[in-house]
Amino acid sequence: MTSGIKDKVAILGMGCARFGERWDTDADGLMVEAFEEAIADAGIEVAQLEAAWLGVGFDAQSTGPSGIPAAVALRLPDIGVTKVENYCASGTESLRGAVYAVASGAADIALAIGVEKLKDTGYGGLPTRTRGSRWDMIGVTGSAPGNFAQLASAYGAKHGIGPSDLKRAMAHVSVKSHANGAKNPKAHLRNLIDIDKALNAPLIAEPLGLFDCCGVSDGAACAIVTTPEIARALGKTDIVAIKAMQVVSSNGWEMQSDQWDGSYLHTTRVAATKAYKEAGITDPRNQLSLTEVHDCFSITELITMEDLFISQEGQGWKDVLDGLFDADGRVPCQIDGGLKCFGHPIGASGLRMVYENYLQLLGRAGERQRQDSPTFCLSHNLGGMPSQNVSSVSIIGPLGV
Amino acid sequence: MDVGILSYGLYVPRRRLQRNSIYQTNRWYAPGLGGLAKGEKAISNWDEDPVTMAVEAGRYCMDGIDRRLVESISLASTTLPFADRSNAGIVKEALNLSDNVMSADCTGSLRAGTSSLMHALQNSAMALCLAADRRKSKVGSTEEMNYGDASAAVLAGSGEVIAKFLGGYSKSIDFVDHYRETGADFDYAWEARFVRDEGYQKILGSAIGAALEKLGISAAAVDHAVISVPVRGVPQKLAAVAGIAPEAVADSHMATVGDTGVSHPMLMLAMTLQNAKPGEKVLLASFGQGADVMVFETTQHLPAVNQRQAHFIQPGLADTNYSRYLFHRGLLDIDKGMRAELDEKQPGTSLARDRKTVLGLIGGKCSESGIVQFPKTDLPVNTLSRATGTFEDYPLADRVAKVLSYTADRLAYSPDPPSYYGMIDFNGGGRMVAEFADIEEGEAEVGREMRMVFRIKAFDTLRGFRKYFWKAIPVQRGGS
């Protein structure tokens, strides 16, 4: 049986660019911004990096193919740079590559960087794209909100939740994230909204309105990882360690068998179960300090609370309305604003989530800092569409806890 | 064994554009159209063309009949989407007919449908004769008020015919009442009075008389005169001249459907058969650079087919959105936005590989586990044995499905926004994420029963191609 990743890898430093509509810079500039912060935080020389992973979702317009763009932009020291793409889990995948390299002993210090330059698209939302010659003949060229909106229809129908109740719970998710994002100087959207504004916004994909959808942003985030021993040798005392990293990809079961009912994320449930086992968590609702989940849409966040086993199935919407996930709730979610307001540069998002959890664990989150000492902090990505997707669950926390 | 009609089918698109809504927009320019601003006409959606409409009529026609028996298929139209790619061949794939059928496109005249039917009736092979048209008309024209979209199907052959073919008569005369050059968008029509006097009366009128004389049938014995002339009063006049009783003249359906071009004679025939009784004589007459006249006698097998066909005739939905109609005809250059810029290039290779999956909606049933899956894959979902190649063809197009989840997407580009789509589960197994076609606000819901229709998925405007695939529409709906 596998021994898991727990406490084998430490985060030496992290950085995150200011997210937003960065008309002023391109993917290279965003990567430099995140990297300079991370390398300073790590307290090492660039020459000490031994391997690197680059996460990008839409490489055609962000960086182009391969890991070379990161090597060039950051002037990395003749090391292997591997580009990874796994939909919205691309940032987490870059971290997984670096973490596994350190854990295997292949590298002492490794870099994970994720970037996305989405605002060169010319329109709101994610770029439309093809998905291979067979899919293009039989698939639906919908939009991301359209794909995820279907969760709401199936979830509401399965649990008998009236459309107005569900809409209100979804609105609460977004109002909370705006309140959190307003306190984050690096967030894309920093305006406060009230519930009526969310409820009355124009429909994007029924039943999702404008404020049920996350920001589409430019940004980059970066992590430098090493072993706990090297971290200590480099003078680090409060060491943040990787507790779990799990990624699960759909094998077609949801889309092609008739067993999935459309109301939840199968992959998230499997990834969470594996991650809790890896981290030694038995009671997520009470053991998790913070969560950064893939709130691409309000309904996704709400249902993810159930898929992470924090809420009971069919009860997530009530926990949302009860404020369980608000900044002052028991299990705050998206305390940095989340995808909703920090923004969602695809390749950077997974690392951005870990960045916030890292800051919170080190007490560096400024106005957003949780006062009780966080222990297990979870981040979650979901890429693709509910019927066929990749999901990741990562957990970090103080070394040895 | 009797030769004649074995079955029929007709498809009239759901939306019915109110003629007055056209007139109200254009009356500043063409006040003379006021006289035509009555009633409604059937209009196909943006994703329909003669091929897709023919598929629908063909499916209705073949309801309850083993499709493997069909020996030939023809598609008659003056608006075939492809000049060089068998349009009938596309329909053949959608209907999952045998690869061994003969297929032919028939075009060049509004008489193309009846001519192909007459050809078919001259031998005893089972022939599916389809007719469909989707004609464009200039804004503010008489044609715009008159032209509607529809398709019709007649299955010809021998055996238990519902209408025995008593014989036919044809005339070919290059009489140019209107024309459209290859590649042109619009008809150019000569004065109506000239066409009435020199065309309908002289050419068609004399053909009706000659046909009855040739076949030795008295005009008084004709119970139904299906005279496909889309001009008020003309069929009645021609019938009177021939000696056919006025009450035998079939409705032209101009008030509710419009002039549907090549499909019109067969559409009128289908609607007439729907209301006919066994033992009645039906005369079918069509016009277009000559005339085709055929006479049939209905049999005791007609009521059973009428009963089958009746439930396919669904009510229309009144539509007053004239600008949407213009846009769907390519006559209004609406700003589609950047999302519409997606390159829809179709690799010929993948279409050849997945012909049955894409055009026939053929899924697979695993011979080991019994599971149904769309599309077929080398390894079935939920595979335990890891055996490959266990899927047998499993057609899904005629299976009812239920909505599992859906959305109405206002972000994704659709020519008919919002774009409805969702996951559907087929009765008997298999599921897919499908676009919903012809759906109005409030008609989508979880658990709703849907049926599949063959539609245009996307246009490749860069290279001049259209991709076809299947979409879902609600099974039962009201009209207005």
Description:
The complex is a heterodimer of chains A (401) and B (480). Chain A has 401 residues and is an alpha/beta fold. Chain A folds into 2 domains: 10-120 and 218-233, Thiolase/Chalcone synthase (Peroxisomal Thiolase, Chain A, domain 1, 3-Layer(aba) Sandwich); 142-207 and 242-398, Thiolase/Chalcone synthase (Peroxisomal Thiolase, Chain A, domain 1), CATH 3.40.47.10. Chain A is 37% helix and 18% strand. Chain A has 16 helices and 11 strands. In chain A, the strands form 2 sheets. A 9-stranded mixed beta sheet of chain A has the order 3-2-4-7-1-8-11-10-9, sandwiched between helices. Chain A has a two-stranded antiparallel sheet with strand order 5-6. The longest helix of chain A is centred in the middle third of the chain and has 19 residues, at 163-181. The radius of gyration of chain A is 19 Å and the shape is globular. Chain B is α+β, with helices and mostly antiparallel strands. Chain B has 2 domains: 3-328, Thiolase/Chalcone synthase (Peroxisomal Thiolase, Chain A, domain 1, 3-Layer(aba) Sandwich); 399-480, OB fold (Dihydrolipoamide Acetyltransferase, E2P). Chain B contains 12 helices and 22 strands. Chain B has helices at 19-26, 50-61, 87-94, 112-121, 142-146, 192-215, 234-242, 264-274, 302-310, 322-328, 348-353, 355-360; strands at 3-11, 15-18, 40-42, 72-76, 102-106, 127-133, 150-158, 163-172, 178-179, 188-189, 224-227, 281-287, 290-298, 317-319, 362-366, 372-373, 391-395, 401-409, 419-426, 431-435, 449-460, 465-474. Chain B has a 9-stranded mixed beta sheet with strand order 5-4-6-7-1-8-13-12-11, sandwiched between helices. Chain B has a 5-stranded antiparallel beta sheet with strand order 20-19-18-21-22. In chain B, a hairpin with a 2-residue loop joins strand 12 and strand 13. The mean pLDDT of chain B is 96.
